[in-house]
Automatic annotation (TrEMBL):
Belongs to the binding-protein-dependent transport system permease family. It comes from Pseudomonas xionganensis. This is Inner membrane ABC transporter permease protein YejB. Pfam families: BPD_transp_1. It is found in: Cell inner membrane; Cell membrane.
Length: 361
Protein backbone atom coordinates (compact mmCIF):
# COMPACT_ATOMS: atom_id res chain seq x y z
CA UNK A 1 0.00 0.00 0.00
CA UNK A 2 2.86 2.37 0.78
CA UNK A 3 4.33 1.92 -2.71
CA UNK A 4 0.93 2.68 -4.25
CA UNK A 5 0.58 5.86 -2.17
CA UNK A 6 4.06 7.00 -3.19
CA UNK A 7 3.28 6.39 -6.87
CA UNK A 8 0.06 8.39 -6.59
CA UNK A 9 1.83 11.23 -4.83
CA UNK A 10 4.48 11.36 -7.54
CA UNK A 11 1.79 11.35 -10.25
CA UNK A 12 0.27 14.48 -8.69
CA UNK A 13 3.19 16.56 -10.00
CA UNK A 14 2.78 15.86 -13.76
CA UNK A 15 -1.01 15.99 -13.38
CA UNK A 16 -0.83 19.46 -11.86
CA UNK A 17 1.62 20.61 -14.54
CA UNK A 18 -0.61 19.30 -17.32
CA UNK A 19 -3.76 20.92 -15.95
CA UNK A 20 -2.00 24.26 -15.40
CA UNK A 21 -0.45 24.19 -18.87
CA UNK A 22 -3.73 23.42 -20.65
CA UNK A 23 -5.60 26.13 -18.77
CA UNK A 24 -2.75 28.60 -19.27
CA UNK A 25 -2.88 28.09 -23.04
CA UNK A 26 -6.68 28.41 -23.14
CA UNK A 27 -6.77 31.54 -21.00
CA UNK A 28 -3.94 33.20 -22.95
CA UNK A 29 -5.85 32.61 -26.17
CA UNK A 30 -9.10 34.05 -24.80
CA UNK A 31 -9.71 37.75 -25.59
CA UNK A 32 -10.34 40.38 -22.96
CA UNK A 33 -7.31 39.91 -20.72
CA UNK A 34 -6.30 42.30 -17.93
CA UNK A 35 -4.39 44.58 -20.31
CA UNK A 36 -7.43 44.89 -22.60
CA UNK A 37 -9.66 45.55 -19.60
CA UNK A 38 -7.41 48.33 -18.34
CA UNK A 39 -7.31 49.84 -21.83
CA UNK A 40 -11.11 49.69 -21.97
CA UNK A 41 -11.31 51.53 -18.64
CA UNK A 42 -8.98 54.22 -19.95
CA UNK A 43 -11.01 54.54 -23.14
CA UNK A 44 -14.16 54.90 -21.10
CA UNK A 45 -12.46 57.54 -18.96
CA UNK A 46 -11.43 59.40 -22.10
CA UNK A 47 -14.94 59.30 -23.51
CA UNK A 48 -16.41 60.60 -20.28
CA UNK A 49 -13.92 63.45 -19.83
CA UNK A 50 -13.41 64.50 -23.41
CA UNK A 51 -9.78 63.69 -24.06
CA UNK A 52 -7.92 63.31 -20.81
CA UNK A 53 -5.64 60.65 -22.26
CA UNK A 54 -2.87 63.11 -22.91
CA UNK A 55 -2.62 63.96 -19.24
CA UNK A 56 -2.77 60.29 -18.18
CA UNK A 57 -0.18 59.12 -20.68
CA UNK A 58 2.38 61.57 -19.52
CA UNK A 59 2.35 65.19 -20.51
CA UNK A 60 0.66 65.25 -23.89
CA UNK A 61 2.79 62.65 -25.63
CA UNK A 62 1.81 61.86 -29.17
CA UNK A 63 -0.77 59.05 -29.22
CA UNK A 64 -1.66 56.53 -31.87
CA UNK A 65 1.77 56.76 -33.41
CA UNK A 66 2.40 53.03 -33.27
CA UNK A 67 0.33 49.96 -33.88
CA UNK A 68 -0.79 47.79 -30.99
CA UNK A 69 -1.79 44.16 -30.64
CA UNK A 70 -4.51 45.08 -28.16
CA UNK A 71 -8.02 45.87 -29.29
CA UNK A 72 -8.95 49.50 -28.64
CA UNK A 73 -5.37 50.62 -27.90
CA UNK A 74 -4.82 52.59 -31.13
CA UNK A 75 -5.69 55.87 -29.43
CA UNK A 76 -3.33 55.43 -26.48
CA UNK A 77 0.31 56.31 -26.04
CA UNK A 78 2.43 53.20 -26.79
CA UNK A 79 4.47 53.93 -23.66
CA UNK A 80 1.30 53.79 -21.58
CA UNK A 81 0.35 50.44 -23.13
CA UNK A 82 3.87 49.15 -22.41
CA UNK A 83 3.56 50.32 -18.81
CA UNK A 84 0.25 48.46 -18.44
CA UNK A 85 1.93 45.34 -19.85
CA UNK A 86 4.75 45.62 -17.30
CA UNK A 87 2.22 46.14 -14.50
CA UNK A 88 0.51 42.84 -15.28
CA UNK A 89 3.66 40.97 -16.33
CA UNK A 90 2.71 40.80 -20.00
CA UNK A 91 5.97 42.38 -21.11
CA UNK A 92 7.43 38.85 -21.02
CA UNK A 93 6.67 36.05 -23.51
CA UNK A 94 4.08 33.44 -22.50
CA UNK A 95 6.55 30.55 -21.87
CA UNK A 96 8.57 32.74 -19.52
CA UNK A 97 5.42 33.82 -17.65
CA UNK A 98 4.39 30.18 -17.25
CA UNK A 99 7.83 29.20 -15.97
CA UNK A 100 7.87 32.08 -13.47
CA UNK A 101 4.42 31.05 -12.28
CA UNK A 102 5.57 27.47 -11.68
CA UNK A 103 8.62 28.66 -9.75
CA UNK A 104 6.43 30.83 -7.54
CA UNK A 105 3.95 28.00 -6.93
CA UNK A 106 6.80 25.68 -5.95
CA UNK A 107 7.56 28.20 -3.19
CA UNK A 108 3.84 28.43 -2.29
CA UNK A 109 3.76 32.00 -3.58
CA UNK A 110 0.52 32.46 -5.53
CA UNK A 111 1.00 36.12 -6.33
CA UNK A 112 -1.23 39.15 -5.83
CA UNK A 113 -4.66 39.77 -7.31
CA UNK A 114 -4.68 42.21 -10.22
CA UNK A 115 -7.84 43.98 -9.09
CA UNK A 116 -8.30 43.25 -5.37
CA UNK A 117 -4.90 44.49 -4.17
CA UNK A 118 -4.41 41.47 -1.90
CA UNK A 119 -2.37 38.27 -1.93
CA UNK A 120 -4.18 35.33 -3.53
CA UNK A 121 -3.56 33.08 -0.52
CA UNK A 122 -5.02 35.74 1.78
CA UNK A 123 -8.13 35.98 -0.39
CA UNK A 124 -8.54 32.19 -0.35
CA UNK A 125 -8.16 32.06 3.44
CA UNK A 126 -10.64 34.92 3.77
CA UNK A 127 -13.29 33.19 1.63
CA UNK A 128 -12.60 29.66 2.89
CA UNK A 129 -14.96 29.66 5.93
CA UNK A 130 -18.02 30.18 3.72
CA UNK A 131 -17.13 27.41 1.26
CA UNK A 132 -16.05 25.00 4.00
CA UNK A 133 -19.30 25.61 5.85
CA UNK A 134 -21.46 25.01 2.78
CA UNK A 135 -19.47 22.07 1.45
CA UNK A 136 -18.85 20.27 4.74
CA UNK A 137 -22.35 20.45 6.20
CA UNK A 138 -24.20 19.83 2.94
CA UNK A 139 -22.02 16.79 2.15
CA UNK A 140 -22.31 15.42 5.70
CA UNK A 141 -26.09 15.84 5.83
CA UNK A 142 -26.45 14.39 2.33
CA UNK A 143 -24.61 11.21 3.34
CA UNK A 144 -26.43 10.96 6.68
CA UNK A 145 -29.77 11.08 4.86
CA UNK A 146 -28.97 9.19 1.66
CA UNK A 147 -27.24 6.10 3.04
CA UNK A 148 -29.89 5.12 5.64
CA UNK A 149 -32.69 6.01 3.19
CA UNK A 150 -31.06 4.00 0.41
CA UNK A 151 -30.65 0.97 2.70
CA UNK A 152 -34.27 1.26 3.84
CA UNK A 153 -35.46 1.42 0.23
CA UNK A 154 -33.35 -1.61 -0.71
CA UNK A 155 -34.72 -3.74 2.15
CA UNK A 156 -38.29 -2.61 1.30
CA UNK A 157 -37.93 -2.76 -2.48
CA UNK A 158 -41.31 -2.57 -4.21
CA UNK A 159 -43.23 -1.57 -1.07
CA UNK A 160 -45.36 1.54 -0.65
CA UNK A 161 -42.50 3.14 1.27
CA UNK A 162 -40.15 2.58 -1.66
CA UNK A 163 -42.64 4.00 -4.19
CA UNK A 164 -43.48 7.13 -2.18
CA UNK A 165 -39.90 7.94 -1.27
CA UNK A 166 -38.84 7.45 -4.90
CA UNK A 167 -41.52 9.93 -5.97
CA UNK A 168 -40.29 12.49 -3.44
CA UNK A 169 -36.68 11.94 -4.50
CA UNK A 170 -37.51 12.46 -8.17
CA UNK A 171 -39.39 15.68 -7.41
CA UNK A 172 -36.49 16.96 -5.30
CA UNK A 173 -33.98 16.03 -7.98
CA UNK A 174 -36.01 17.76 -10.69
CA UNK A 175 -35.94 21.11 -8.86
CA UNK A 176 -32.62 22.96 -9.35
CA UNK A 177 -30.87 23.95 -6.14
CA UNK A 178 -30.99 27.68 -6.97
CA UNK A 179 -34.74 27.51 -7.67
CA UNK A 180 -35.33 25.72 -4.39
CA UNK A 181 -33.19 28.38 -2.68
CA UNK A 182 -35.46 31.11 -4.06
CA UNK A 183 -38.48 29.17 -2.83
CA UNK A 184 -36.96 28.93 0.65
CA UNK A 185 -36.33 32.67 0.67
CA UNK A 186 -39.92 33.40 -0.37
CA UNK A 187 -41.28 31.09 2.33
CA UNK A 188 -38.92 31.50 5.28
CA UNK A 189 -36.67 34.57 4.80
CA UNK A 190 -39.18 37.41 4.72
CA UNK A 191 -40.16 37.00 1.08
CA UNK A 192 -43.93 36.66 1.20
CA UNK A 193 -44.69 34.53 4.25
CA UNK A 194 -42.50 33.96 7.32
CA UNK A 195 -39.37 35.84 8.34
CA UNK A 196 -37.63 33.09 10.30
CA UNK A 197 -34.15 33.00 8.79
CA UNK A 198 -31.57 35.62 7.73
CA UNK A 199 -31.16 36.39 4.07
CA UNK A 200 -27.44 37.15 3.84
CA UNK A 201 -24.10 36.51 5.45
CA UNK A 202 -22.64 33.64 7.44
CA UNK A 203 -23.04 35.32 10.84
CA UNK A 204 -24.91 38.24 12.38
CA UNK A 205 -23.41 41.70 12.85
CA UNK A 206 -23.21 41.17 16.63
CA UNK A 207 -21.59 37.72 16.32
CA UNK A 208 -18.48 38.68 18.30
CA UNK A 209 -20.59 39.86 21.22
CA UNK A 210 -22.52 36.57 21.56
CA UNK A 211 -21.59 33.82 24.03
CA UNK A 212 -20.26 30.52 22.69
CA UNK A 213 -23.67 28.87 22.58
CA UNK A 214 -25.16 31.92 20.89
CA UNK A 215 -22.40 31.91 18.27
CA UNK A 216 -23.07 28.26 17.42
CA UNK A 217 -26.82 28.86 17.11
CA UNK A 218 -26.28 32.00 15.04
CA UNK A 219 -23.89 30.14 12.71
CA UNK A 220 -26.32 27.31 12.01
CA UNK A 221 -29.23 29.76 11.81
CA UNK A 222 -27.54 31.46 8.86
CA UNK A 223 -26.59 28.13 7.26
CA UNK A 224 -30.02 26.51 7.51
CA UNK A 225 -31.48 27.71 4.21
CA UNK A 226 -28.40 27.54 1.91
CA UNK A 227 -27.40 24.09 3.18
CA UNK A 228 -30.98 22.85 2.78
CA UNK A 229 -31.03 24.08 -0.81
CA UNK A 230 -27.76 22.24 -1.56
CA UNK A 231 -28.88 19.02 0.11
CA UNK A 232 -32.20 18.87 -1.77
CA UNK A 233 -30.41 18.97 -5.08
CA UNK A 234 -27.73 16.41 -4.25
CA UNK A 235 -29.11 13.60 -2.11
CA UNK A 236 -31.29 11.97 -4.79
CA UNK A 237 -28.45 10.46 -6.81
CA UNK A 238 -26.64 9.14 -3.75
CA UNK A 239 -29.85 7.63 -2.33
CA UNK A 240 -30.62 5.71 -5.52
CA UNK A 241 -26.98 4.69 -5.87
CA UNK A 242 -27.01 3.29 -2.33
CA UNK A 243 -30.27 1.44 -2.95
CA UNK A 244 -29.10 -0.15 -6.21
CA UNK A 245 -25.73 -1.08 -4.71
CA UNK A 246 -27.40 -2.88 -1.80
CA UNK A 247 -29.94 -4.57 -4.07
CA UNK A 248 -27.12 -5.87 -6.24
CA UNK A 249 -25.30 -7.33 -3.23
CA UNK A 250 -28.45 -8.75 -1.61
CA UNK A 251 -29.08 -10.87 -4.69
CA UNK A 252 -25.66 -12.54 -4.64
CA UNK A 253 -24.97 -16.12 -3.65
CA UNK A 254 -23.04 -15.38 -0.43
CA UNK A 255 -26.11 -13.61 0.98
CA UNK A 256 -28.31 -16.63 0.19
CA UNK A 257 -25.75 -18.87 1.89
CA UNK A 258 -25.58 -16.63 4.96
CA UNK A 259 -29.35 -16.67 5.32
CA UNK A 260 -29.41 -20.45 4.84
CA UNK A 261 -27.08 -20.72 7.84
CA UNK A 262 -29.73 -19.04 9.97
CA UNK A 263 -28.19 -15.58 10.32
CA UNK A 264 -30.60 -12.75 11.07
CA UNK A 265 -31.41 -10.14 8.45
CA UNK A 266 -29.54 -7.44 10.36
CA UNK A 267 -26.49 -9.69 10.72
CA UNK A 268 -26.54 -10.45 6.98
CA UNK A 269 -27.19 -6.84 6.00
CA UNK A 270 -24.65 -5.11 8.21
CA UNK A 271 -22.17 -7.93 8.70
CA UNK A 272 -21.80 -8.98 5.06
CA UNK A 273 -23.68 -6.80 2.59
CA UNK A 274 -22.81 -3.39 4.03
CA UNK A 275 -19.05 -3.64 3.53
CA UNK A 276 -19.31 -4.66 -0.13
CA UNK A 277 -22.16 -2.32 -1.04
CA UNK A 278 -20.45 0.72 0.48
CA UNK A 279 -17.44 0.50 -1.83
CA UNK A 280 -19.20 2.26 -4.69
CA UNK A 281 -20.53 4.90 -2.28
CA UNK A 282 -17.03 5.62 -1.01
CA UNK A 283 -15.78 5.82 -4.59
CA UNK A 284 -18.11 8.73 -5.26
CA UNK A 285 -17.34 10.67 -2.08
CA UNK A 286 -14.30 12.68 -3.29
CA UNK A 287 -16.01 13.94 -6.44
CA UNK A 288 -19.22 14.66 -4.52
CA UNK A 289 -17.37 16.63 -1.86
CA UNK A 290 -15.24 18.58 -4.31
CA UNK A 291 -18.25 19.28 -6.52
CA UNK A 292 -20.36 20.71 -3.69
CA UNK A 293 -17.37 22.41 -2.07
CA UNK A 294 -16.15 24.39 -5.07
CA UNK A 295 -18.75 24.50 -7.84
CA UNK A 296 -22.15 23.55 -6.54
CA UNK A 297 -22.31 26.49 -4.15
CA UNK A 298 -21.76 29.31 -6.70
CA UNK A 299 -25.41 30.16 -7.28
CA UNK A 300 -26.22 29.53 -3.62
CA UNK A 301 -23.51 32.00 -2.61
CA UNK A 302 -24.97 34.60 -4.97
CA UNK A 303 -28.58 34.08 -3.85
CA UNK A 304 -27.79 34.18 -0.12
CA UNK A 305 -25.09 36.88 -0.43
CA UNK A 306 -22.34 34.57 0.83
CA UNK A 307 -18.87 35.71 -0.23
CA UNK A 308 -17.11 32.37 -0.70
CA UNK A 309 -14.61 30.70 -2.99
CA UNK A 310 -17.15 29.89 -5.69
CA UNK A 311 -18.19 33.51 -6.11
CA UNK A 312 -14.60 34.74 -5.94
CA UNK A 313 -13.43 32.27 -8.60
CA UNK A 314 -16.31 33.19 -10.88
CA UNK A 315 -15.62 36.91 -10.57
CA UNK A 316 -11.89 36.30 -11.13
CA UNK A 317 -12.62 34.41 -14.36
CA UNK A 318 -14.94 37.16 -15.59
CA UNK A 319 -12.44 39.92 -14.73
CA UNK A 320 -9.45 37.93 -16.05
CA UNK A 321 -7.77 38.15 -12.67
CA UNK A 322 -5.14 35.59 -13.66
CA UNK A 323 -3.33 35.23 -10.30
CA UNK A 324 -6.61 34.37 -8.58
CA UNK A 325 -7.71 32.09 -11.43
CA UNK A 326 -4.49 30.06 -11.51
CA UNK A 327 -3.92 30.16 -7.75
CA UNK A 328 -7.36 28.76 -6.97
CA UNK A 329 -7.04 26.26 -9.84
CA UNK A 330 -3.74 24.98 -8.45
CA UNK A 331 -5.02 24.68 -4.87
CA UNK A 332 -8.38 23.14 -5.83
CA UNK A 333 -6.78 20.63 -8.20
CA UNK A 334 -4.17 19.63 -5.61
CA UNK A 335 -6.88 19.21 -2.98
CA UNK A 336 -9.01 17.17 -5.36
CA UNK A 337 -6.14 14.79 -6.18
CA UNK A 338 -5.31 14.34 -2.50
CA UNK A 339 -8.96 13.70 -1.60
CA UNK A 340 -9.17 11.14 -4.40
CA UNK A 341 -6.15 9.35 -2.94
CA UNK A 342 -7.78 9.42 0.49
CA UNK A 343 -10.84 7.80 -1.06
CA UNK A 344 -8.71 4.96 -2.42
CA UNK A 345 -7.08 4.46 0.97
CA UNK A 346 -10.52 4.35 2.57
CA UNK A 347 -11.32 1.44 0.24
CA UNK A 348 -8.82 -0.72 2.11
CA UNK A 349 -10.26 0.31 5.48
CA UNK A 350 -13.75 -0.78 4.43
CA UNK A 351 -12.62 -3.95 2.66
CA UNK A 352 -9.07 -5.18 3.44
CA UNK A 353 -9.33 -7.63 0.54
CA UNK A 354 -8.63 -4.76 -1.87
CA UNK A 355 -4.90 -4.61 -2.62
CA UNK A 356 -3.64 -1.59 -4.51
CA UNK A 357 -0.09 -2.94 -4.34
CA UNK A 358 -0.90 -5.49 -7.03
CA UNK A 359 -1.90 -2.76 -9.52
CA UNK A 360 0.54 -1.77 -12.19
CA UNK A 361 1.80 1.82 -12.37
Amino acid sequence: MLAYILRRLLLIIPTLLGILLINFIIIQAAPGGPVEQMIAKLEGFDAATGGATGRISGGGAEVGSASSNYRGAQGLDPELVAEIERMYGFDKPAPERFWLMLKSYAQLDFGTSFFRDAAVIDLIIEKMPVSISLGLWSTLITYLISIPLGIAKATRHGSAFDVWTSSMIIVGYAIPAFLFAILLIVLFAGGSYWDWFPLRGLTSSNFDELPLGGKILDYFWHLALPVTALVIGSFATLTLLTKNSFLDEIGKQYVVTARAKGLSNNRVLYGHVFRNAMLIIIAGFPSAFIGIFFTGSLLIEVIFSLDGLGLMSFEAAINRDYPVVFGTLFIFTLLGLVVKLIGDITYTLVDPRIDFESREG
